[in-house]
Design a protein that fits this description.
Number of helices: 13
Mean pLDDT: 76
Helix content: over 70%
Oligomer: single chain
Length: about 280
């Protein structure tokens, strides 16, 4: 399962997490706080490169990358202990990833979502009775839908849609930026949880702890590189955020589709299919 396609997907997931509507808008204030450089000050100076903000951002990125990498190693270790149940875990995990995808795409709050889910199950049943899909495929997909239904009825979607904002308190120093990065890794989980949770599940399916840690490290790189660019080109980044806000809906839908696709491939044990296309997550 581990390969260039999976690694590229982890990197792409990090970039999507950075662009998510509950992360991107607060980044200017966050970078200003960890560096001690005010937004108004940046706009007045109009410097292209801001090394002070960049180095503070670097330590911030190191902080959350360390936490995410450790989470990846831990997820892989747990996955190894449950290796004998890998098939069953993949089916349930695929359903959870689909649920995350529906959440990220903003579909779980639709008033008729439950009826639509039942409609999808009815379509699957009809396809099975008509011989279009096999018995195994029918039961695998139905199991995934059952997982989505259970999480929905449990109210997990309502928990996910609550945005928790934790204000970290530390001096505007490199050590402070590192500490805030660690806090960020835990405090912003409600925002990037669907994507992070999906990558953690993939990490738990890897053969070794090193592969699981690598997957989350690459995710951190995907999340961290845009942070570093934003810190270095802080003035330009402020303008970018204002202009990019109109595309938040597209980012949500794109990320949701990727997660739903990933969940379906996990359920059907077809994750390697992406490798034939040269793209994937």
């Amino acid at each position: 399962m581990f390969g260039e396609v999976t690694v590229f997907g982890a990197f792409l997931a990090g970039v999507l997490a950075f662009l998510s509507p509950c992360v991107l808008p607060i980044i200017p204030a966050y970078l200003s706080y960890i560096s001690g450089v005010g937004v108004e000050e940046v706009q007045k100076e109009k410097k292209l490169f801001n090394t002070k903000v960049f180095f503070a951002t670097l330590f911030f990125v190191i902080g959350f990358s360390l936490v995410f990498t450790m989470l990846g190693a831990g997820a892989s270790l747990i996955g190894q202990l449950l290796r004998s149940y890998q098939t069953e875990i993949a089916k349930v995990g695929g359903g959870i990833v689909i649920f995350f995808g529906l959440h990220f795409a903003g579909l779980l709050l639709r008033p008729n979502f439950l009826k639509e889910l039942i409609g999808v199950q009815a379509i699957l049943t009809a396809l099975y009775l008509l011989g279009v899909i096999s018995k195994e495929t029918f039961f695998n997909l139905s199991g995934g839908l059952a997982t989505v239904l259970a999480l929905y009825l449990f109210g997990l979607h309502e928990v996910l849609y609550r945005q928790f904002k934790k204000e970290a308190k530390a001096k505007a120093s490199y050590i402070g930026a590192f500490v805030i990065g660690v806090v960020f890794a835990f405090g912003w989980t409600p925002c990037i949880g669907p994507i992070l949770g999906s990558i953690l599940f993939l990490a738990s399916q890897q053969e070794t702890v090193r592969e699981g840690a690598t997957l989350l490290f690459v995710f951190s790189v995907g999340l961290g590189v845009p942070f570093l660019i934003a810190g270095l080109l802080f003035s330009l980044f402020l303008n970018f955020v204002r202009k990019f806000s109109r595309f938040f809906g597209v980012v949500e839908v794109t990320g949701g589709i990727l997660l739903i696709t990933l969940g379906l491939l996990l359920i059907l044990d077809k994750l390697g299919w992406f490798a034939t296309l040269g793209v994937g997550i």
